[in-house]
Amino acid sequence: MPPPNPAHSTEVSLQPGELIITKTDPKGLITYANRVFMRISGYAEHQLLGQPHNIIRHPDMPRGVYRMMWKTLQAGEEFFGVVKNYTIDGNYYWVLANITPDYDRKGQLQGYYSVRRRPSREAVEAASRLYAEMRAIEARTSKPAAPDASAAWLTEEVARTGQDYTSYILSLNAGALGRGERA
Where would I find the PAS domain in this sequence (predicted)? Predict the structure, then answer.
């Protein structure tokens, strides 16, 4: 839900050690949300269950990040990323997201399990810079090609550090994770 005036939105922060946990079905519809998620996002359980997880998607998030996320998850791998989300009242919060495919005993995809924690300030600042450039790329690229173009730019930019996106994100959060907040 977009805020009435994004220029006046306020950042909401998770406390150290606090975890947001959600589960979705294979299409991304929320099937479970913990109390921390409800408190931070401002949504009640009945407002979340059955809704697409992107109900909290902030427009500052480039589509290319989600393209990378879905490619990673569809390959059966877990995804780590720094994500900016909306609250119901138009404020925002940053998370270090870890999303994992959830399979049944027969190996059939049941959905996705996501654990999100407070990212380091360094990770938020780096993501803000990278995501601004990704949004600029998406704005000047044809709509169907925009997510792939910005994701390719991000991959190349992060490769300059000698890391892939996951390693880069985790390295930016090493301090926060080292204080008992494990990924």
Answer: 21-76
Bridge partners (DSSP) listed for residue 114: 22, 99
Domains of the chain (ranges plus CATH)?
Answer: 18-178 (3.30.450.20)
> Across-strand partners of 117?
96
Cα separation of 183 and 181, whole Å? 7
Q: What is the pTM of this model?
A: 0.90
For residue 34, how far is the Cα from the chain centroid? Answer: 16
Q: Which residues contact 116 (CB under 8 A, 6 or more apart)?
A: 14, 19, 20, 21, 22, 83, 95, 96, 97, 98
**Cβ atoms of residues 169 and 81 within 8 Å:** yes
